[in-house]
Amino acid sequence: MGMPIITPETGTREQTITDIITSVTLEQTALSHILNTEGEKIQKIVAKSESVEELLAINKSVNNMVDSITKLELLLQNKLQLFENCLGK
Q1: What is the DSSP letter of 4?
Q2: What are the boundaries of each domain within the chain?
Q3: Are 63 and 8 in contact (CB under 8 A)?
Q4: How far out from the chain centre does Cα 40 lie?
């Protein structure tokens, strides 16, 4: 997937809200790719590791990433809630 090209426009209120919702969608897509990569990382380490320390380290790393993504998702949810009642008014 290539990087989307977003061009700022001075359009209607509805278009502006749509652009913000689109940006949230793109951010969520990126976060899902990161989570998928973290899962693949766990699978590779578990398959080849014989060290408990290495497994604990990867667990800690992935846990930190999931915590960060959870915080970002809450911010994205708050962003969307700002526009919950905007369309149609």
Answers
A1: P
A2: 26-81
A3: no
A4: 16
